[in-house]
Write a structure and sequence with these properties.
globular; 6 helices; Rossmann fold; 5-stranded parallel β-sheet; about 30% helix
């Protein structure tokens, strides 16, 4: 949803013009994936950079169940993390990420032109395999900040 003069305008992908990936001029759609737990300025910078790659930023947010499968546990539950992401001006849509295999389906369903991830994912087959469907861009992480580092600092204070 976009807000213009306090009027809510439905901007869900099904109602938006199709993208370059579909062969029709329209919005250039960017998709990124992540857990976005303990939201920090590194996340904000990544989302800002991602939004500059196109006109419409979709964030696929790892569900609590998917995080458990990956051996991760979030401090904040999915719905809270989703609400925080939706409040960020760079983010146009938040969708659930529930498995590794959904990425190709997401690209097709949302007519994605660019998938972007942090540079630490470069070379990962989950993302490299998408290059035949869309552009794949790896963004530099913000030095000196990560969720792992924040959690470690918090644990060391107790």
């Amino acid at each position: 949803m976009s807000h213009i003069n306090s009027v809510r305008i439905d901007t869900t992908p099904s109602l938006l013009p199709t993208s370059e990936a579909s062969g029709t001029p329209g919005l250039r759609r960017v998709l990124t994936y992540g857990t976005f737990d303990l939201l920090h300025y590194g996340h904000i910078r990544l989302l800002q950079q991602a939004s500059k790659l196109g006109d419409y930023l979709i964030v696929a947010l790892s569900t609590d169940e998917f995080n458990a499968l990956k051996g991760k546990m979030s401090f904040y539950p999915y719905e809270v993390r989703k609400e925080m992401l939706e409040a960020i001006r760079y983010v146009d849509l938040v969708i659930p990420e529930s498995c590794w295999e959904q990425k190709k389906r997401d690209i097709e369903q949302y007519h994605v032109d660019v998938v972007c991830m942090g540079g630490d994912w470069k070379g990962d087959p989950h993302f490299e395999s998408l290059k035949d469907m869309c552009e794949v861009v790896y963004l530099n992480r913000t030095p000196g900040i990560s969720t792992t580092e924040v959690k470690s600092r918090l644990e060391n204070k107790h």
